[in-house]
Design brief:
By secondary structure, this protein is α/β, with parallel strands linked by helices. The chain is built from six helices and eight strands, in the order E-H-E-H-E-H-E-E-H-H-E-H-E-E.
Length: 189
Amino acid sequence: MTNQPLPTYVSFSAEISQQTTEALIAVFADLVNKKTKAVHLLLSTPGGTVTNGINLYNVLKALPLQLVTHNVGSVDSIGNVVFLAGDRRHAVPNSTFMFHGVGFDVTQQTRFEEKLLLEKLDSVQSDQKKIAAIINERASFADDQEVASLFLQAATKDPAYAKQRGIIHDVRDLQIPPGAPIIPLVFQR
């Protein structure tokens, strides 16, 4: 009987931004360079930018290791896409998932003309289409219409719903084996 190395646990409890995305990718790149075979990503996030979330999803899925994602609090917004990168996906019993449609912020006085509105609408629709495609590929929704309806609900869902829809494989408490390496990512707020 051979002893399998313990998986590495990476804790990420932050908004998905350029800074946090780059930091998480750097940690995973280091683990791959060290020939790590399995990583458990402990995820709790309010979401963030679509571009960074899709970037994380694509990079995490491409890595030559087994990725297990755990919802350890709340996975919201674009965080759901990052979460779905896991080969196996779990949620603690008191966790939640929140889905909503894509939007944009207006932070300064802006004049809205047809051209600008059409550009913004095209961007929102394009981002929603990418997110819906990932959700449909990785989970078990009936069709694109069900995912579109989920975006319009802007509702928080529990682990039972997530399991029913294939977002997670199992609802269970997180148990980190003694001696397992843990890498916490901590960011200035």
